[in-house]
Amino acid sequence: MTPSQHLQDTAIRYFLEVVRSGSVSEAALRLNVSASAVSRQIASLEEVLQVPLFERRPRGMVASAAGELLATHAKRHALDAERVVADIEALQGLRRGQVRVCASAGFAFEFLPLAMVTFREQHPGMQFQLVSASPAQVTQAVRNGEADVGLTYSRAAVRDIDVQHRQNSPVILIMPPGHPLARFASVSLAQMQPYPLALLDDGNTARQLFDIASGQRGLVFDPVLESGQFDALVRFVLHGGGLTLGGEVTVREYVRRGLLHTVPIRERGMHARSIELQTLTGRNLPRGVRAFVDHLRALLPAPR
């Protein structure tokens, strides 16, 4: 049990695990206790509050309206407990601490590992946990308190999320430096059509905007590679397999080293997304998390 868990009531911890997993048995496995122990704690909460906290359904348990309200309060309480412990550990400076980051695949590929290295040069005691997920899952992880920081592409505002930094991030075309399209200052979708194309799956904002723009132009693309792993697409391009799509930040270092070349796409719809650095609304961030957020704010804007 971590120090912050000592500051939380057992019934609340069990309740939150059932909310996360949607199942008493699954929650019991994660907590390493019996299912009956979890059920007793949930029942005791419902007895105290005089209201059902879950709707029991054939495929699992879903929080009721009262359960959702309690979960929101309990998650913030749990995060505040973690902050207190982290801040106590940080009284002698940022010598210890952990930052949990959830990010879209492109950011987890190169930008964030490099940012973590440069941050640890100043604060070598800091540790990181990095999870890659779809944009919607990144935001949900922040809302659920499973991540301290989310870095993702967004097309619309989301409730319960504080945006610590936002910048426009058009979808760009990524290619080897010697590709025939590299000589153009910008390209159209029609110019891209003759060449092999590798794309992320449809949970990615670049793919969504590309599909919308292609449909509006009446163009059909048959990608030679589809993957949920951005690094696979980049390596496909590096090996001469074709083109892919992404953002300036995600391939910045590869372009700087001359390994890749990028070109803007002449479609208004390809500009309709932003990078968002996300934290949970109303949460007092631990000192180490705040420092890393500031670090990312400084790194994200394109070099002038």
TrEMBL record:
Ranges for domain HTH lysR-type: 1-64
PROSITE patterns assigned to the protein according to its UniProt record, in alphabetical order: HTH_LYSR (PS50931)
Keywords (A to Z) from UniProt: DNA-binding, Transcription, Transcription regulation
InterPro entries: HTH-type_LysR_regulators (IPR050950), LysR_HTH_N (IPR000847), LysR_subst-bd (IPR005119), WH-like_DNA-bd_sf (IPR036388), WH_DNA-bd_sf (IPR036390)
A Pfam family annotated for this UniProt entry: HTH_1
Residue intervals passing through the bilayer: none
Family in the record: Belongs to the LysR transcriptional regulatory family.
The protein's name in its UniProt record: LysR family transcriptional regulator
Protein source organism: Comamonas squillarum
Native organism taxonomy: Bacteria, Pseudomonadati, Pseudomonadota, Betaproteobacteria, Burkholderiales
